[in-house]
Amino acid sequence: MTSPDVLSRTPGMAGELLRRGRRLDWFTLGWKVVGVVVLAVLAFSTSSVALAGFGLDSFIEIGASTVVLWELSETGEARQQRALQLIGIAFVLLAAYLLVQSMVALITGHHASPGVGGIAWTAVTAIVMFTLAGLKGRTGRALGNPVLATEARVTFVDGLVAVAVLTDIVLILVLGWWWADPVAGFVIVYYAVREAIHIFRPGPE
Questions:
Q1: Mapping DSSP to helix (H, G, I), strand (E, B) and coil, where does residue 110 land?
Q2: CATH of the domain at 176
Q3: What is the DSSP string of 120-186?
Q4: Is residue 179 classed exposed, middle or buried when 0-12, 13-18 and 19+ CB atoms within 10 A define those classes?
Q5: Which residue has the higher pLDDT, 80 or 89?
Q6: Is the pTM of this model over 0.90?
Q7: CA nearest to 47, candidates 192, 169, 190
Q8: Which range marks the domain in which residue 32 is found?
Q9: Which of 7, 63, 105, 169 is disulfide-compatible with 182, CB 3.0–4.6 A?
Q10: What are the residues whose beta carbons fall under 8 Å from the beta carbon of 137, sequence distance 6 or more?
């Protein structure tokens, strides 16, 4: 069903919504590019599966933002479907990789050693991603654009992943629960699979 916001918007409003959507995704893109570098350094220095997985999730967010910017430049149902499929495939690849890595880390008893840097970055990222997700969701619904609305879910999941990794780091530092790191990896797998299913087998709106 078409949203009342879509029915009541004017051409001028639609243009402003498109510009807002692009600005939100450019901001997301810039944040995640920086995040990939930060997380690569943190994951390498701490041997954390969860931080490495969060870095890979950032790559998906970069890809999703790029796809949305591409899609917003020319609307059309076929173009939207291709964009959604690309996001879904990225989630499947992330889930497969992290599932293997987390299982190996758990079986071998791999001990990560995350620190304050990981806490700071994941906490700030969670706040930023939840804020962006809300703004993208409202903009996507107002535009009647399923790709932007779906990408808002990707951004929200990224915020949830940040919270999971943050919890993992705190548990390791405070309680010494080394196994929290691969468990956080499994949490990311769960959300990635759920989002892939949502994209490839969408339910009724």
A1: coil
A2: 1.20.1510
A3: HHHHHHHHHHHHHHHHHHHHHHHHT-HHHHHHHHHHHHHHHHHHHHHHHHHHHHHH--TTHHHHHHH
A4: middle
A5: 89
A6: no
A7: 169
A8: 9-200
A9: 105
A10: 149, 152, 153, 156
